[in-house]
Amino acid sequence: MTKREARARGPAPRVRVRRGSPLLAAAVGLLAFGALSAQQGDDAQRAATLAETRLTMDKWLETQQILSKERKEWQQGKEILLGRLELVQKEVAGLEEKIQSAQTSVTEAEAKRTGLHAEIARLTAASDQLVQRVSTMEADVRRLFRSVPEPIQTKLQPLFQRIPEDPATTKVSLAERVQNVLGILNELNRANTELAVTFEVHQMADGTPAEVRALYVGLAQAYFVSARGEAGIGRPSAEGWKWEPARAIADEVTLALEILQAKQSPAFVPLPVRIQ
């Protein structure tokens, strides 16, 4: 019985016992045992309370350690996430800059492509015009070639053969055709500004062929004289050069040829010219 229970029951009834009686000894023993039991009960309760308190403190300390560890880990994780976030933000900024640069490049490329398309269209139109002009020039060169003196024809024959028969189906490049026509025209222009002397075979007035010396004044007029003193005048036509006898100018043609060959001093030599 604890002290609290004893107090709740109130004071114990008084029993008169005589000293030295067995009853008194038994009572004293019972009181001592009760007091000892009560003291032991209080000690056990305090020990249980202390153990419970220690357990609670241990749990609290363990909880605080867990919270501290988790707080530390959370802080570390937060710093890692913030670092990653900053890195991702930098990457996003870099990507946005690259996207902006790419968009600018695309815009510039579109503008260049538009300009190139316009330039291609312009060059195509110019090429078509050039093809038409070259074809016209080739046709003119064909007609002109028949009225060119035979020595010039022989010289220009390799270039003349390069002119395509059908400009619409030819595989010769436009550049080669232009170069070929310009080469022919340059030679014709040079020949038209020169005095050329050649040896040729011509039909004489009696119908017999004879070797003559011919003097070409550019591409518009020519004269010849034979060893027998027969002379003639030649002029271009659509069918080729036409020659006609002119025996009266034999001496003048001979003098002009000797001056050109440095056998005579330079002098004025009158020769007939027909301007068409």
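^ that was protein a. below is b, sequence first then the tokens
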Amino acid sequence: MNHQIQNSSLSVSIATKGAELQSIINKSTGLEYMWSADPAFWAKKSPVLFPIVGGLKNDHYTYNGNTYTLGRHGFARDMEFTVTEQDESRITFTLTDNETTRKNYPFQFNFSVKYTLEQNRVNVSYIVKNTDDKTLLFSVGGHPAFKLPLVHNTFFEDYYLQFSHVETAGHWPLSPGGQLEDHSVPFINNTNILPLKRPLFYQDALVFKNLASNSIAILSKKTPNGLRVHFDGFPYLGIWNAKDANFVCIEPWCGIADSVNATGDLAQKEGINQLQPGHIFERTWGVELF
């Protein structure tokens, strides 16, 4: 089931399954910013990644001497959330641990995804509450796919990414099994511009750690329309496109895939967050549409 929120600038649709963003429409232009979820390429639009981001080594982890299985990006994206708050311009979806989640994730939690509209911006907040009597171990992140080209008479390679800061940064390659290699590869050299070319993504996602930037824009010299993703407080970032599909994902992460050298111990996993009983973790990314 889809739920709508809106304000004077935007109309937004979100599904209860996975609390997944489905549509962002600019009311003044009628422009849709979200990918169509064409199953020939990739049948999702903006999955929510919880309680892990990326893939585990051999899809397994250990906790307190026991071994558990979790698929890539965790289970939240495939579960039904409950609407726990809604008014015209904001809505909150909540997932609570249950018998199914505890089989392979032995923690008690409340996980909420809150969507809030502010003028021409959609803010997406991840709110994790530890309802257990032990430390909660988790990662969380976003995976929104933005339609590209955005407007008629433009092409994918007419667009470019503009980082908020000049960057010199490597990206971390992914192994065939979806784990991070143990070294980065030089990639961005003293620039804030990355021209979009389809072959950039033929070897999977571009994964970055601790960029100087806190936002990335998708722009083109052939149209004034574009968007800017703000990701303060997210130490990892993925940029991805399914081969030759008409979208780009800008993915803010508080967590990251296992490395090829990962021990499998969840408490030692890179990017894992440790939340004490009764405490609340909250991070917000936003997308500004124009």
